[in-house]
Amino acid sequence: MLSTQADMHIVGEADNGVSAVEAYDKLLPDIVLMDLQMADGSGLDAIKAIRANHADARIIVLTTYSGDGRALRALRSGAMGYLLKASLRKQLLDAIRSVHVGGKHLDATVATAIALHVLEDPLTDREIAILSLAASGNSNKLAGSMLDITEETVKGHMKSIFSKLGARDRTHAVTIAIQRGLIEV
Amino acid sequence: MQHGSRWKDGASLTGIATQHVGSFRAMHFHTGSVDPVADRVDLLIVGMPEISCASQIGGITCALDAALSGTLSHLRAGGVFEGRFGETLILSSPPSPVRSNSLLVVGMGDADQLDAARLGRLAAVAMRAAVQLDVRSMACLLGPISIDASANDVAQAAREMMIGVLGALDKHQDRRKVDDTICIFDLRTLHADIATDRFKAVLNQWDF
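^ inputs. structure came back:
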C-alpha cells in the first residue's frame, strides 16, 4: 500500500526490536512504523532506544493494542502517532504525512482510552511487578518470596492496586490490567 | 481565481449555511457558523490554549471537549498534548456525537497573548497540517475573533489569518493535488461582514 504512494518510499524493514534500532541508525528514515509486539524485543524498548540516540525520530505505533497503558507508555517514550491495525488505509496515510511535518496523530478510540485514565494515580513499578506475578498464578507469599519482600508487604501493594484500578479482587485486577495494557502476559 | 459554481453554496457539500468568500487554486473559502459537534466536515480545526498559562479552553473547543467527555482537556492535563503554540494533534474518527471525520487541534500557547500576527501564524500551522490530509471539506474554528472584538481587531485578525492560510498553501500544498476542497471559517463576531470583506480583499490581492 505505501509503495503505491508517490511521496512515500520504503527504505527498510525489521522483524524485531533490536534489528529495528540497528536499521534506524543505518537508514535514518523520515518515519518509522512500529509494531509493539515483535520477536526478541518489545516495540516500546525499540522506541526508547531509537529516541535515545535520535531525539527527532518520528515514530508511529501501528498495533492491535487499544488499551491506554501501552499507548501512554509509547507516547511518553516519544512516539508521535498511535494507530490501530484496524485503521483505514486513509488514516494510516494521513498519519504518516501529518507526523512527517511534526504533528501528533492518534486514533480517537485510543485517545479516549488514554483520557479516561491519564489523570489517575498510576501503578508503581513494584505494583506492576506484583500484579504480573499474580497474573502468572503466584500467591502473595510466592510473589513476596520472588521479590524478596514479606507477604504482608505484598498484601499492602495489592490493596493499593485494587484501589487504583477499581478492582474487586486479584482476578478482577489482573483482568483490568491486561485489558488496559498495564501488564504483559 | 478558480470558482466552481457548485461551491458557491457551501451547503451543497457540508449542510452548513455559508457565504462564499473566494477561491485559491482548488481551495474554496467560505464563512459561516459551524456547530463543532453536530455539523459534519472531513476535518474540524480547533484551538487549544496551553495549560501552564491557566487559560480556559474557549467556548467552541469547550463544547467539543464536553461532547468528547473531556478527552481534549484530559490529554492536555496528562501532557499528551500540551497546547504549546503551533503544536498539532490529529484525532482520527472521533466518537459520536461528534460527526466530523477527524479533528485537528492546534496549540495556541498563552491565549491571552494572541494577537493578529500570532493568529496568522496559527492559521498557517493549521493549513500546513490540513493539506497533508486527504480531506475535501474543513471547518476552521480556531476561535480567534471573539464575539466582542472591535471592528479593527476583527479586520486585522481576518487579514492575518487569510495571509497565513494562503502562504501555507503556497508553500506546502502539493500542486498535483487538484481536488476541490471547501474551507469554512467559523465567524462568531458582531463584525462578521468586516471579516468576510477582509478575507476577500486578501484573496483578491494574493499573487497567484
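Chain A touches chain B at residues 6-7, 72, 75-76, 83, 87, 90-91, 93-95, 97-98, 100-109, 111-112, 114-116, 118-119 (CB under 8 Å). Chain A has a mean pLDDT of 94.
thumbs up if we can close this ticket
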